[in-house]
């Protein structure tokens, strides 16, 4: 497996086809109670994202090649407790999905390094490569932190 090419392309496509696009077709009966599970398959690759929570959530993405786990990313974070309006929460997650649809093959973990739209700005600071990485993404509304997520992972081959 050439992890830098085929794998990166698959990971970007899988992320865009699941949570980032509100991919209802990717939603499956979850393996674990009180979780959501999204999956995407292409050729020998299978992507699985299992998470729990809403305003604050934790989860794990795993990529399999021919049913063998080869890569994983764990994440946790969510909306800041100061954000209580349901409409604000919806708008933040809508903006987050817009950012996550901009994932690219050079760093296919979350969204781009920066992205701005109307009053929202997104920042993603990641260190490492597909084999070993960690990062933090944040969303600001009018320069006030409203969302933050920590993530890490890498190859498990």
Strand order of the largest sheet: 1-2-3-4-5-9-8-7-6
In total, the number of domains comes to 1
Distance between the termini: 11 Å
Number of helices: 2
Order of helices and strands: HEEEEEHEEEE
| Class of secondary structure makeup | alpha+beta
Please state roughly what percent of the residues sit in beta strands, choosing from under 5%, 5-15%, 15-25%, 25-35%, 35-45% or over 45%.
Answer: over 45%
Number of strands: 9
Largest sheet: 9 strands, antiparallel
Description of the molecule:
- Helix content is 19%, strand content 48%.
- The relative contact order is 0.16.
- It is globular and about 45 Å long.
- By secondary structure, the protein is an alpha+beta fold.
- Strands 1-2-3-4-5-9-8-7-6 form a 9-stranded antiparallel beta sheet, covered by helices on one side.
- It has one domain (3-155).
- The protein contains 2 helices and 9 strands.
- The longest helix is centred in the first third of the chain and has 15 residues, at 3-17.
- This is DUF5680 domain-containing protein.
Annotate the secondary structure layout.
Elements: H1 3-17, E1 27-28, E2 36-42, E3 45-53, E4 56-65, E5 68-79, H2 86-100, E6 114-117, E7 120-129, E8 132-141, E9 144-155
Antiparallel strand pairs: 1-2, 2-3, 3-4, 4-5, 5-9, 6-7, 7-8, 8-9
Domain DUF5680: 49-156
Organism: Leuconostoc kimchii
Protein name: DUF5680 domain-containing protein
């Amino acid at each position: 497996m050439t992890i830098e090419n085929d794998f990166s392309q698959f990971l970007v496509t899988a992320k865009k086809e699941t949570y980032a696009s509100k991919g209802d077709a990717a939603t499956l009966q979850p393996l674990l109670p009180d979780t959501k599970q999204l999956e995407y398959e292409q050729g020998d690759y299978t992507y699985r994202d299992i998470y729990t929570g809403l305003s604050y959530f934790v989860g794990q993405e795993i990529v399999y090649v021919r049913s063998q786990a080869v890569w994983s990313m764990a994440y946790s974070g969510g909306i800041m407790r100061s954000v209580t309006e349901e409409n604000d929460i919806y708008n933040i997650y809508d903006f987050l999905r817009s950012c996550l649809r901009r994932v690219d093959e050079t760093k296919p973990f979350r969204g781009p390094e920066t992205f701005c739209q109307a009053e929202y700005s997104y920042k993603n600071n990641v260190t490492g490569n597909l084999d070993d990485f960690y990062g933090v993404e944040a969303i600001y509304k009018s320069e006030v932190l409203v969302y933050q997520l920590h993530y890490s992972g890498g190859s498990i081959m």
